[in-house]
């Protein structure tokens, strides 16, 4: 099982887009996918591509789980920080993926600056609302280009922003 | 697989990227050529434009910064999590300076972050002269002793916490010791639990470390240097710190070293500075009464079974 990553650089030597690579890899190996919708969005900003085009290339029947998360938008690029709410554009991509026919469970990743449980729970429940609206509404115009929101862009601050935290389990001591 | 248009193989590109990420000054490294590894890293940094495309808003170098910054930032974050009492004692800024130098002296070479702090205590011990204040030597020595002790103690906490324990082992029936005929008790040997560590510290660093973890305010003042004997073990997945008397410690050390009870006690008696009566009082719980609470307590927490 593989998950699509958030990425921050494009290699000059690369001759294949990430979505084409994921598609071919999935087809040729028959592996399953964790489709991280936030990662698609973050990479689309960082590499200047259309995130819907990425989702269009995902083999629908190979996805076994959606991942959603918050990220930090620094204006010039996005970093996958897992430390906040899911932004509207990522929710829209989530709905779009559902309308493409992808059916899978959903996991919200929030593992830095973790708020009270009620806040996390409310964010998880939004997924149900988006899926419900995707079921009852007519299909949205699938080709409408996504407009980046400016209202949640952070100004680059002194605080270093790094991708989701490294996993280190501190000792429990008494 | 991704095809490469140049002669560079995927492996070449991976090595190149690693060199840039671990370069000491990140993507801003310049050529100083202090040693071969550094020269390779510096050369890699100089070739970022050749390897990486810019985006609409970032240069190639700025894009690589995301990875290069994250590498050391993550390692520092892990060290802060592992050594919270050291962070408290030094303040985060000073801790980060020590930790950054440590990462240069002992670059991460393990697949797991659990090994990252392995040598931090040794690094601080080797650099203790740098931390001593020449104007207030006595106080400064005590402070550095605490610094080094905390590094050793907090590292031990991590190792005991994540290492093997006795939670899933069959419970050691320590009361069984009571059933051993009196004339044979002296010959018993105990197998130490794998989570037991014995430490001799120069300060009461454990009090400071526990206070930081419990969020106690104000924190204890820097203790005077004095030999402190500590037993660390893990019970129900929680690391426990037990301060013991020197003779208790030496007895435990002998038992952990697979010396039989009689010889262990004899050895402690020989080395002890206490009078026979004082020593007897100190160790009476495990010496004369094999079913004493102390020995049973030790047996349950520090030993797996009789050998």
Brief characterization of the structure:
By secondary structure, chain A is an alpha/beta fold. Chain A has 5 helices and 7 strands; from the N terminus they run E-E-H-E-H-H-E-E-E-H-E-H. Chain A is 35% helix and 14% strand.
Describe the protein's architecture and organization.
- The complex is a heterodimer of chains A (174) and B (307).
- With 174 residues, chain A is α/β, with parallel strands linked by helices.
- Chain A has one domain (2-6, 17-136): TIM Barrel.
- Chain A has helices at 18-29, 37-47, 51-56, 88-99, 117-136; strands at residues 2-3, 10-11, 33-36, 63-69, 72-73, 78-79, 105-109.
- In chain A, strands 1-3-4-7 form a four-stranded parallel sheet. A two-stranded antiparallel sheet of chain A has the order 5-6.
- In chain A, helix 4 crosses helix 5.
- The longest helix of chain A is centred in the C-terminal third of the chain and has 20 residues, at 117-136.
- Chain B folds into two domains: 10-142, no CATH class; 166-306, no CATH class.
- Chain B is 54% helix and 9% strand.
- Chain B is built from 15 helices and six strands.
- In chain B, the strands form two sheets. Chain B has a three-stranded antiparallel sheet. Chain B has a two-stranded antiparallel ribbon with strand order 2-6.
- Chain B is elongated.
- Residues 285-294 of chain B have low confidence and may be disordered.
- The interface between A and B is large, with 30 and 48 residues.
- Strand 2 (10-11) of chain A pairs antiparallel with strand 1 of chain B.
What brief labels describe this structure?
heterodimer; A: 174 residues; alpha/beta; TIM Barrel; four-stranded parallel sheet; two-stranded antiparallel sheet; 35% helix; B: 307 residues; mainly alpha; 2 domains; two-stranded antiparallel ribbon; 15 helices; 54% helix; elongated
**Can you give the helix content of chain A as a percent range?**
25-40%
Q: Mind summarizing the main beta sheet of chain A?
A: 4 strands, parallel
Could you say which overall geometry of chain A the principal axes of the C-alpha atoms support? globular
Mean pLDDT over all positions of chain B: 82
Contiguous low-pLDDT stretches of chain B (5 residues minimum) are 285-294
**What's the total number of strands of chain B?**
6
Unreliable runs of chain A: none
CATH architecture of chain A: Alpha-Beta Barrel
Arithmetic mean pLDDT of chain A = 88
- Cα-to-Cα separation, first versus last residue of chain A: 39 Å
CATH topology of chain A, anyone?
TIM Barrel
Q: Strand order of the main beta sheet of chain B, please?
A: 3-4-5
Q: Figure out the total of helices of chain A.
A: 5
CATH homologous superfamily identity of chain A: Divalent-metal-dependent TIM barrel enzymes
